[in-house]
Amino acid sequence: MAMLSSHIRFAHFTSSSLSSLRHNSCSSMSSSSSSSWIPFQDTDHTKSKKVWIWTKNKQVITAAVERGWNTFIFPSHLPQLASDCSSTALICPLFATEREILDVENKRVAAIFDISTPEELERLRPEDEQAPNIVVNLLDWQVIPAENIIAAFQNSQKSVFAISGNTSEAQIFLEALEHGLDGIVLKVEDVEPILELKEYFDRRTEESNLLNLTKATVTNIQVAGMGDRVCVDLCSLMKPGEGLLVGSFARGLFLVHSECLESNYIASRPFRVNAGPVHAYVAVPGGRTSYLSELKSGKEVIVVDQQGRQRISIVGRVKIESRPLILVEAKTDSDNQAISMLLQNAETVALVCPSQGNTLSKTSVPVTSLKVGDGVLLRVQGAARHTGIEIQEFIVEK
């Protein structure tokens, strides 16, 4: 693809509009401003993703600024729109031509590449491009080209963006090959994708925060008869110490261990949590809860380990079957009110134990071996819920 000159000038700029933009906005955009960076969990480490918004809609601009994004791309023939927006908010305006993105000082910030064939993708080489950023517009396939671009630019100092028209496309680009591209250009004229993208980043950022888990002591164990219990099969594997937060009451969720451990009688199923009966709450992203009976393929849940580290996983399948149940009650040191949970009465169903500092210790105890006085882990939180959202109101659950 031909590389265009970095010395294009905008005939539409007036001296007053340029002065206004330079006064109210970032002076250089060799990289995006700090408020356009979003923390993002990337397998074993946290990296940041950049977000630029390409729009002519002032409502979109307002919504984006309110959510922490301040880098906007305007058509090159609309400098006045950028000037008007800069007068009301501190933004970093950029201007797009057919093949380039320039800042207010006409410095080349990024090169734009339309890619619709394998040959065009092959010609995109990091060493051949002088701009600090590459913006790709994938006109046909999305996932495979994005993966190829990530592989090609993995040792490059350049940032690679993909143009996205909605949040679903953005998610594909941000998660390709686990690492994702460096950022996205969200090209929209409607506010809704802005709200959806912020919600998506909030869910991903949540993963980097440790959950506060509380040790509780088992006070009662009782066989409870038959009930419909839910096995949750995930699209990812769990390791020892990991499971789902589940409970009969939202004020206290037990950390129910996965079936990842080996046994003599049944094969390990590290994708499965035998979670509890259909009425029970389960923790899902966004600080919410869902009923186990509401889970289905494609839904998201939070996988948590002994230390409170959390990650989002997708539900692949849910199995509801009638099985014998056992009631477990526990209390924390700070609350004399018992918190209870019903689970299938089987050796493969276990609760996660508190860790013993840096010393090696068991990660879980099967409910069939559970004794009064054993320690288990709870997530203690607000009791009142409305459609899974924590609210402040008087409530009694027992």
TrEMBL record:
Question: The organism sits in which domain of life?
Answer: Eukaryota
Q: Which UniProt keywords apply?
A: Amino-acid biosynthesis, Aromatic amino acid biosynthesis
Xref: Pfam families = DHQS, DHQS_2nd
Tell me, which GO biological process terms does this entry list? amino acid biosynthetic process; aromatic amino acid family biosynthetic process
Task: Tell whether Amino-acid biosynthesis is among the UniProt keywords.
Answer: yes
Supply the InterPro entries for this chain: DHQS, DHQS/DOIS_N, DHQS_C
Q: Which terms in the Gene Ontology molecular function aspect does this entry carry?
A: 3-dehydroquinate synthase activity; oxidoreductase activity
Q: Does the keyword Lyase apply?
A: no
> Which stretches make up the 3-dehydroquinate synthase N-terminal domain?
49-201
Report domain 3-dehydroquinate synthase C-terminal positions. Answer: 216-398
What is this protein called in UniProt?
Answer: Uncharacterized protein LOC101511600
The protein's gene is named LOC101511600
